[in-house]
């Protein structure tokens, strides 16, 4: 078995901005695991929020012994981007070697298309209102917030897309006081979910203040070990493979979160169709799906995922799984 990682860049269709900064390219790490003439593929997105860089993730992948399997991988690496790419590549390798699809190996039903959110990045109220009008035909918009002027942004987006379902993501950018002030207006404007309003390491007030609409943990939820600290503060968890460290833990987290009474959202970083492909399996039956990464790109992988009126479809075997 040989494991190789390379850092690649894919141009975005437009500058993408959240509360923590902006970018014009998606920087991803592509992992290939080759054994007996068969190659499995995986992709991850290093995230500075967790101290990851492209170089550090490539180094983590290079440090892995070969051969390795999905069980020993969990023991060898912590949850994060590097483990995600290797885990997904191992699933792909196993599927190709067995001549089956990954969902068959995982004991899952045939995945169907899932309606996904489309993300509007943080901008001026005028620009966000124009973007909302442009994408108002979509059934679900996700709005990036997290700064001064958020109320004006929300009003502009709702005016631009009067009939579209809206969820918002503050990316840890609010205080408890600001959330309490904004919450009634979120309800008034028909917002159905707020994602990570407070910093993950300072979110205790969510267990004490009123939550008039569902609050979803993103940066506060990584894997199953995160769940006990979320009880009483969050109503949902956002499962991202770059946080769980791969499809293996993502499926386990989904099962445990549902068993503990959390709603499930399945999200993504800004990556290519190769990164989204395994997440489509986790997204089956999720309350909210946010797998729009490829829709934000100016260029994508060969055999890219299909997005249409029914949502994002499961991958073709030429792409993954």
3D structure, described in words:
The protein is of the alpha/beta class. Helices cover 32% and strands 23% of the residues. It is built from eleven helices and 13 strands. It has an eight-stranded parallel β-sheet with strand order 4-5-6-7-8-9-10-11. A three-stranded antiparallel β-sheet has the order 1-2-3. Helix 1 crosses helix 3 and helix 5 runs parallel beside helix 6. It is globular and about 60 Å long. The chain starts with a strand and ends in a 9-residue tail after the last strand.
What string gives the helices and strands in order?
EEEHHHHEHEHEHEEHEHHEHEEE
Number of helices, counting only DSSP H or I runs of 4 residues or more: 11
Main sheet record:
8 strands, parallel
Q: Kindly name the structural category.
A: alpha/beta
% residues in beta strands: 15-25%
Major sheet: arrangement of strands: 4-5-6-7-8-9-10-11
Shape: globular
| Count of extended strands | 13
Contiguous uncertain segments of 5+ residues: none
Question: How confident overall, as mean pLDDT?
Answer: 96
The helical percent reads 25-40%
Please compute the radius of gyration using only Cα atoms.
Answer: 19 Å
- Compute the separation of the termini in Å: 18 Å
Quick tags:
11 helices, 321 residues, 23% strand, three-stranded antiparallel beta sheet, 13 strands, globular, alpha/beta, single chain
Write a brief caption for the model.
The protein is α/β, with parallel strands linked by helices and 321 residues long. 32% of the residues lie in helices and 23% in strands.
């Amino acid at each position: 078995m040989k494991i190789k990682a390379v850092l690649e860049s894919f141009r975005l269709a437009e500058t993408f901005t959240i509360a923590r900064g902006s970018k014009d390219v998606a920087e991803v790490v592509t992992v290939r695991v080759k054994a007996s003439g068969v190659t499995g593929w995986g992709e991850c997105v290093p995230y500075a929020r967790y101290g990851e860089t492209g170089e550090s993730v490539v180094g983590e992948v290079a440090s892995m012994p070969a051969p390795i399997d999905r069980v020993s991988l969990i023991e060898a690496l912590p949850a994060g981007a590097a483990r995600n790419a290797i885990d997904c590549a191992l699933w792909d390798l196993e599927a190709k070697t067995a001549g089956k699809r990954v969902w068959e190996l995982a004991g899952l039903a045939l995945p169907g298309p899932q309606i996904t959110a489309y993300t509007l990045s943080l901008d001026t109220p005028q620009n966000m209102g124009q973007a909302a009008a442009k994408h108002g035909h979509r059934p679900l918009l996700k709005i990036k917030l997290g700064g001064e002027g958020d109320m004006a942004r929300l009003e502009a987006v709702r005016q631009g897309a009067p009939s579209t379902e809206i969820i918002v993501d503050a990316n840890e950018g609010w205080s408890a006081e600001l959330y309490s002030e904004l919450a009634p207006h979120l309800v008034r404007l028909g917002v159905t979910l707020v994602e990570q309003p407070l910093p993950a390491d300072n979110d205790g007030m969510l267990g004490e203040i009123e939550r008039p609409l569902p609050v979803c943990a993103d940066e506060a939820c990584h894997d199953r070990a995160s769940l006990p600290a979320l009880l009483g503060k969050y109503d949902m968890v956002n499962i991202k493979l770059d946080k769980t460290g791969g499809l293996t833990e993502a499926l386990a987290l989904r099962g445990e979160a549902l068993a503990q009474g959390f709603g499930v959202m399945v999200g993504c970083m800004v990556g290519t169709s190769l990164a989204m492909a395994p997440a489509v399996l986790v997204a089956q039956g999720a309350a909210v799906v946010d797998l729009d990464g490829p829709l934000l790109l100016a260029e994508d992988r060969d055999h890219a995922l299909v997005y249409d009126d029914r949502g994002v479809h499961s991958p073709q075997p030429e792409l993954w799984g």
